[in-house]
Write a structure and sequence with these properties.
The complex is a heterodimer. Chain A is 37% helix and 22% strand. The longest helix of chain A is centred in the last third of the chain and has 22 residues. In chain A, strands 6-7-8-3-9-10 form a 6-stranded mixed sheet, sandwiched between helices. In chain A, strands 2-1-4-5 form a 4-stranded antiparallel sheet, covered by helices on one side. Chain A has 2 domains: 189 residues, Rossmann fold (3-Layer(aba) Sandwich), CATH 3.40.50; 73 residues, no CATH class. Chain A is α/β, with parallel strands linked by helices. Chain B is 73% helix and 0% strand. Chain B is globular, with a radius of gyration of 19 Å. Chain B has a domain of 216 residues. By secondary structure, chain B is mostly helical. In chain B, helix 2 packs across helix 11, helix 8 crosses helix 10 and helix 12 crosses helix 14. Chain B is built from 14 helices and no strands. The longest helix of chain B has 27 residues. Classes of the chains: A alpha/beta, B mainly alpha. The interface between A and B is medium-sized, with 34 and 25 residues.
């Protein structure tokens, strides 16, 4: 497979990419779900991963986050090989994922949900003898994140009592609190009523500009508005990768994945914007 | 209502509870011996309540640590180490270390499999203790144990005065530690693990290690309780290791409520006092009374006695 399209500015300095996948492959039984995937994200990249159902997108996220072990290939971040690191160690390296299905701490309050992440991130979560009052810095960080996503007012409400859209915001708040350098967003808009997608989009734009983001998303509107680069995955292989415009306009991609309707939606939104 | 937010309940019931425990000393001078054993069992229940309600570690083998603590204190005394406070601390340390070893293996499980494994383990330990008569005294238990005065001043008497206050002081100390831990960042992370352990590990938390630390702490508290039982009764019997003791402590905690650190403090005395009184009334039917009580609380008091009290105290406040 040819070299992946590297994001602008990287100039072949592959070692300093925020996230680099080198020939990742994974077979389940006889089924090859990931086939020699190469991908590079520079710091600050906004990269969409799209593809039909069963293309192996979730498996790829699993491979990158460390939930699944690859048969071959490497996951690199800022020159470090993460392939053999555990989930936890990858998080500590700044590689963080969000979940397709909201995965929060339902009975805990919004603040506590975020506080859990902040405490882990600042290394105080192991302290048996600290009171919550001693965590001034952590509390400030929590409130900062909550304020950014405009959910301060809900901070004392158990997350199970929030609307689904708001829960997704808490999910993003947790992710933000972990100060990711590389962020995997697994279908952030899944299940959100269209009335709340704007909330989400605003929240996504608040993510730190230097964070490299790989986003799996079916919603072409969101992809168009948020991602400058797109990779299309089909049957575990990279079908096309590059600037959103180029990829979306490519004949193959239209034939294989977008279809006429999808392309219209992409174009329509583009013209609308 | 969450464990780390005992809130209103802690302020009021907490104070009332400790005052009542002190008052009981004066109001029922003839029952100080019994009272001391209630306090010890309360401490044991507290250790179990922390593991169950707080860390979500369900177990039918907690008596193992209680029993080991009791035997450690007994053997220490028989070997000539009769200073009581250090005896309790050593027993707690031994059980805590033991639980680290066991915890790293069994805490990979949860729910029913964990329940089964802890039960099996405790039955094995019980049988081993039964056979190892050289160490445990087998069926006869350890007798002829005596201890030096507490702090070198207070002598052990049969009236139970020292026993009661000594047990109360230990309970207060352990409760203070438990309360601190529950409201620490570590405590919050325990709540996180209980709620969604996979997500906790994806926040970068070493979940197994955290659980083991908590488990070890709870085991150390159980060991302390066991050692106290040895010291206040000057006897260790196999009963301390039995499955029945594990079940008893589970019942106490469920009765008191698993969602609050006060659950054990309420459940254990209620259970033991009701048991004591009904046994006096009719030695054959006490199980019936306890059974009805337990069913009543389970059906009508969500969250046990502590949950019920919380709702009473919280009327007029938002949940």
């Amino acid at each position: 497979m040819a070299d992946p399209d590297l994001p602008n500015g990287s100039d072949g300095m592959t070692s300093m990419l925020a996230l680099e996948l080198r020939g990742l492959s994974k077979t389940f039984g006889g089924l090859q779900v990931t086939h020699d995937v190469h991908l590079g994200l520079a710091s600050g990249a906004r990269h969409a991963l799209i593809g039909p159902n069963g293309a192996g997108k979730s498996t790829l996220v699993g491979l990158v986050s460390g939930a699944i072990e690859p048969d071959s290939g490497q996951v690199m971040s800022f020159g470090r090989d993460l392939t053999r690191l555990s989930l936890q160690d990858r998080v500590k390296m700044g590689l963080v994922r969000s979940f397709q299905i909201t995965s929060l701490f339902p009975k805990l309050s919004v603040l506590e949900n975020v506080q859990l992440a902040v405490n882990e991130n600042t290394g105080v979560a192991d302290r048996l003898w600290l009171g919550m009052k001693d965590l001034v810095e952590q509390r400030e960080r929590c409130l900062e994140v909550l304020a950014e996503l405009q959910i301060v007012e809900q901070s004392d409400i158990p997350v199970e009592n929030l609307s689904y859209g708001k829960q997704r915001l808490v999910e993003i708040a947790i992710v933000l609190a972990l100060k990711p350098r590389v962020l995997l967003l697994d279908e952030p808009a899944a299940g959100i009523p269209s009335t709340e997608t704007d909330l989400l989009l605003t929240a996504l734009h608040k993510l730190p500009s230097e964070t490299a983001i790989l986003m799996i998303e079916h919603d072409m509107k969101l992809v168009r508005e948020f991602c400058a680069e797109v990779t299309v995955l089909v049957s575990g292989k990279v079908l096309a990768s590059g600037k959103s415009e180029d990829v979306m306009n490519s004949e193959t991609v239209r034939d294989v994945y977008l279809g006429r309707a999808g392309y219209e939606r992409f174009k329509g939104v583009k013209e609308h914007v | 209502m969450k464990l780390e937010k005992t809130g209103f309940l802690s302020d009021r019931v907490g104070m009332i509870w400790w005052l009542a425990a002190l008052a009981a000393y004066f109001i029922f001078p003839d029952y100080r011996g019994f009272g001391a054993s209630v306090l010890v069992m309360t401490l044991f229940a507290l250790s179990f309540g922390l593991a169950l309600g707080f860390a979500g570690i369900i177990s039918l083998g907690h008596a193992m640590y209680f029993g080991v603590g009791a035997y450690v204190a007994g053997r220490l005394a028989l070997a000539g180490w009769q200073e009581p406070i250090s005896g309790v601390l050593i027993a707690g340390f031994v059980t805590g270390v033991l639980a680290i070893g066991i915890g790293f293996v069994i805490l990979r499980l949860n729910g029913l499999p964990l329940l089964m494994v802890t039960m099996a383990l405790s039955v094995i330990v019980f049988e081993a203790a039964n056979k190892a008569t050289g160490i445990t005294g087998g069926d006869d238990g350890l007798v002829g144990i005596s201890f030096k005065p507490v702090l070198g001043i207070f002598n052990w008497n049969l009236d139970g005065n020292l026993q009661y206050l000594y047990a109360l002081a230990w309970l207060a100390l352990v409760f203070f530690i438990a309360r601190r831990v529950v409201s620490s960042p570590y405590g919050l992370s325990m709540a996180g693990i209980r709620e969604n352990s996979l997500r906790m590990s994806l926040l970068g938390a070493p979940v197994l290690r955290r659980l083991v630390v908590m488990y070890s702490l709870c085991a150390a508290f159980a060991g302390i309780a066991g050692a106290l039982l040895t010291q206040i009764t000057a006897f260790v019997g196999l009963q301390v290791l039995s499955l029945e003791t594990s079940v008893d402590v589970l019942v106490m905690v469920v009765l008191g409520g698993t969602f609050s650190i006060y659950g054990a403090l309420l459940g254990a005395p209620v259970y033991l006092i009701v048991k004591y009184v009904t046994q006096q009334w009719n030695p054959f039917y006490w199980m019936l009374v306890i059974g009805v009580l337990l069913m009543g609380v389970t059906f009508f008091f969500k969250g046990g006695i502590s949950g019920w009290l919380t709702r009473i105290f919280q009327t007029g406040r938002t949940e």
